[in-house]
TrEMBL record:
Signal peptide: none
Organism: Paractinoplanes rhizophilus
Top-rank taxon, per record: Bacteria
Gene3D superfamilies: 3.30.70.100
Domain EthD as annotated: residue spans: 11-88
Protein name, as recorded: EthD family reductase
Amino acid sequence: MHKLLVLYPEPADPDHFRDYYVTNHLPLVRQMPGLLAWRYSFDVAATEGEAPYFAVFEAEFADAAAMSASRASPQGRQVAADVVNYATGGAVVIHYPVQDGIV
């Protein structure tokens, strides 16, 4: 499995961010090909001090190639182009292969 993680710093207008993200951006995300699962939160907290991020999003893909193909698709390009409409604080995007742990 391969994960895409988006970390959002505090936006200029948090209410606009929340509303636009849920109403407009996430419906675009749902259309991305190869997307296995996704989740987000506006309740980001730090274990100590203040959290450096306002919101977080994560998406799961079968592998890095599936993620790359999804991001390069017309739907993926539309999702990327939409970020400027709500994320005035910018966005940090990272991705990584997931290693299972043993319990």
